[in-house]
């Protein structure tokens, strides 16, 4: 099978690949190991074994509040970007109008725009508008940065839809909405789900937009963690981090199940 | 050389596009309107407004208005401290992207050409950290690189007697580059793997059968054909590194500040909106320039292929 890699070339390839796998895993594994260390400071090598830092984190009201806010925000963002993104993706694939390419470029442009600047620009405008509710501001900012992910995954899956099936449904008397609901949607379901999952994860982890729009009352998880890094030196910080890592792993496995990782990201 | 490749792609293309009678023109287009309005109002308009504030003046009450001025841009160039942050950002971004390229090629090659199980495992390891918060990953590197004997790297170095005392990497540019490499490495591997996967293996086999050693096959066949993936990956890693805030904040400390951190300082600490906006405009300009250049490179390639 691997006969195309042989000799020195193969050795170098595999050596570098193995080294990079270790490089990628090392910080995450270390954080997880540090989270069960039975010491009052984070040290290397970790000592003993305890779950008391998890108990501390799960009793920490700031962290729990942040968790609640982040999950609600990510759910709202997912709903918002799906509601706006799925129809837009439909227009991009099925539409046939002047300036289609330009509009597609515009809808995807938040992807290449530095999101730090997206957040800053939005803060300025929202301040001028007098929009004081940090939760609403965060929701708007997060939908701006996550909608292109939905567009990309849904456009890809829409391009694979067999339009003959829709024609058949229409010929048999189904109206447009019913055709969409019963024929088109089942075919793009995995793309929509992947887009939604992306939106959720990007929103949950987002820092560069969040840092501008959050305030002291409403701080999502990444901001709270950043504050803890500076102020807290016991292993509760690794414990919080491990909870976040485990949540992310669940997301990745779901994504892999739904559409396959490579396909989801290459879209 | 690539004609056979293109021919296969054309044949493989599903023909569902043709003869579709249910193709809506205007009504389907209208479905994009809500998102268009949303982005126009909350993305496009704010960006333009920010551009305008960068050439205006802020009075003592913090209100931004006339007269128009370019003084904020001049300040960025003339004040040594700010100019240094600009060059730091470019240097860190270029080094990170270059390192990512060199290290991603082997990984992408192994990922594309190995047994399915190996491919799956590597894909999972490469992608999984992508969805872990950058703050967590930066923190992991802080634990590894920590100065003094408490850090994992120093512990290993000293236990193995490679160095006599602890080395100080944390809060330097090197730490920022390592962290950025870790965070953005997948953005290099994925486009490369997708480009490598599209190369017709017969071309490499032909070169090998004609007697080319492995390194020559790579340099003359694989590398040139994977250029689109390289350009896309380099652009992504560069743009993301240039616009980063969290990694330099956690790993760079005061000595490796990047443009993102400077913007944050100007807005949250100094409250100098026009100057913060000017730095943001410069950052966007750099990112757009690199993206434009790479688009031009890819276009040129396509033209050459077509002719």
Number of helices of chain B: 15
Regions with little confidence, pLDDT below 50 for 5+ residues of chain A: none
CATH H-level superfamily title of chain A = MetI-like
Largest interface: A-B, 98 and 96 residues
The gyration radius over C-alpha positions of chain B equals: 24 Å
Let me know the average pLDDT of chain B: 85
**Fraction of residues in β-strands of chain A:** under 5%
| Helix/sheet category of chain B | mainly alpha
Biggest sheet, spatial arrangement of strands of chain B: 1-2
Chart the SSEs and their pairings:
The complex is a heterodimer of chains A (267) and B (307).
Chain A lengths: L6 H28 L17 H7 L2 H34 L5 H9 L6 H15 L4 H26 L3 H9 L4 H30 L4 H4 L7 H11 L4 H23 L2 H6 L1
Helix pairs in contact in A: 1-11, 2-11, 3-6, 3-8, 6-8, 7-8, 8-11
Chain B lengths: L2 H10 L13 H5 L2 H21 L3 E2 L5 E2 L5 H8 L1 H34 L2 H12 L6 H12 L6 H8 L13 H25 L3 H9 L4 H12 L1 H16 L3 H7 L6 H11 L3 H34 L1
Antiparallel strand pairs in B: 1-2
Features:
heterodimer; A: 267 residues; mainly alpha; MetI-like fold; 12 helices; globular; B: 307 residues; two-stranded antiparallel ribbon; 2 strands; 73% helix; disordered N terminus; disordered C terminus
Structural notes for this entry:
The complex is a heterodimer of chains A (267) and B (307). By secondary structure, chain A is mostly helical. Chain A has one domain (55-266): MetI-like fold (Orthogonal Bundle). Chain A has helices spanning 7-34, 52-58, 61-94, 100-108, 115-129, 134-159, 163-171, 176-205, 210-213, 221-231, 236-258, 261-266. Chain A starts with 6 loop residues before the first helix and ends with a helix. Chain B is mostly helical. Chain B has one domain: MetI-like (MetI-like fold), CATH 1.10.3720. Chain B contains 15 helices and two strands. Chain B is globular and about 75 Å long. Chains A and B meet through helix 1, helix 3, helix 4, helix 5 and helix 6 of A and helix 2, helix 3, helix 5, helix 6 and helix 7 of B.
């Amino acid at each position: 099978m691997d006969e195309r890699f042989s000799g020195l070339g193969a050795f170098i390839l595999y050596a570098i690949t193995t080294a990079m796998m270790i490089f990628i895993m090392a910080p995450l594994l270390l954080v997880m190991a540090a989270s069960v260390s039975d010491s009052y400071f984070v040290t290397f090598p970790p000592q003993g074994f305890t779950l008391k830092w998890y108990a501390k984190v799960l009793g920490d009201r700031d962290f729990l509040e942040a968790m609640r806010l982040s999950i609600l925000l990510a759910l709202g963002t997912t709903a918002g970007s799906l509601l706006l993104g799925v129809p837009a993706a439909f227009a991009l694939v099925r539409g046939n109008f002047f300036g289609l390419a330009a509009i597609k470029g515009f809808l995807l442009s938040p992807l290449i725009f530095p999101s730090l600047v997206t957040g800053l620009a939005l803060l300025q405008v929202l301040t001028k508008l007098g929009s004081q509710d940090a939760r609403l501001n965060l929701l708007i900012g997060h939908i701006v940065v996550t909608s292109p992910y939905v567009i990309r995954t849904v456009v890809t899956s829409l391009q694979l839809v067999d339009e003959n099936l829709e024609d058949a449904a229409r010929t048999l008397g189904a109206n447009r909405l019913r055709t969409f609901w019963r024929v088109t949607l089942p075919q793009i379901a995995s793309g929509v789900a992947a887009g939604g999952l992306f939106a959720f994860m990007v929103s949950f982890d987002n820092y560069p937009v969040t840092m501008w729009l959050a305030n002291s009352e409403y701080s999502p998880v990444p901001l709270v963690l950043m504050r803890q890094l500076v102020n807290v030196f016991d292993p509760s910080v690794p414990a919080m981090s491990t909870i976040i890592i485990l949540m992310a792993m669940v997301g990745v496995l779901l994504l892999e199940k739904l559409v396959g990782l490579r396909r989801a990201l290459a879209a | 050389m690539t004609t056979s490749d293109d021919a296969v792609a054309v044949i493989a293309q599903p023909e569902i596009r043709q003869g579709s009678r249910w193709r809506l023109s205007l009504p389907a287009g209208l479905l994009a309107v809500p998102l268009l309005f949303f982005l126009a109002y909350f993305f496009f308009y704010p960006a333009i407004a920010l551009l305008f504030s960068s050439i205006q003046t802020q009075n003592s009450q913090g209100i931004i208005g006339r007269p128009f001025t370019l003084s904020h841009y001049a300040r960025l160039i003339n004040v040594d401290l700010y100019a240094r942050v600009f060059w730091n950002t470019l240097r860190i971004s270029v080094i990170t992207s270059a390192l990512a390229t060199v290290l991603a090629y082997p990984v992408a090659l192994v990922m594309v050409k190995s047994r399915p199980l190996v491919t799956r495992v590597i894909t999972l390891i490469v992608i999984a950290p992508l969805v872990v918060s950058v703050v967590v990953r930066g923190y992991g590197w802080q634990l590894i690189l920590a100065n003094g004997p408490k850090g994992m790297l120093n512990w290993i170095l000293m236990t193995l007697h490679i160095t006599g005392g602890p080395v100080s990497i944390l809060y330097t540019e090197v730490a920022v580059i390592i962290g950025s490499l870790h965070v953005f490495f997948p953005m290099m591997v994925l486009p490369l793997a997708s480009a490598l996967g599209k190369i017709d293996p017969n071309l490499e086999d032909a070169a090998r059968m004609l007697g080319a050693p492995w390194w020559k096959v790579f340099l003359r066949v694989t590398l040139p054909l994977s250029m689109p993936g390289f350009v896309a990956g380099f652009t992504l890693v560069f743009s993301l590194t240039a616009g980063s805030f969290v990694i330099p904040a956690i790993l760079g400390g005061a000595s490796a500040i990047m443009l993102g951190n400077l913007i944050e300082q100007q807005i949250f600490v100094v409250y100098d909106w026009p100057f913060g906006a000017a730095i943001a405009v410069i950052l966007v300009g750099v990112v757009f320039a690199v993206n434009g250049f790479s688009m031009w490179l890819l276009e040129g390639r396509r033209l050459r292929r077509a002719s």
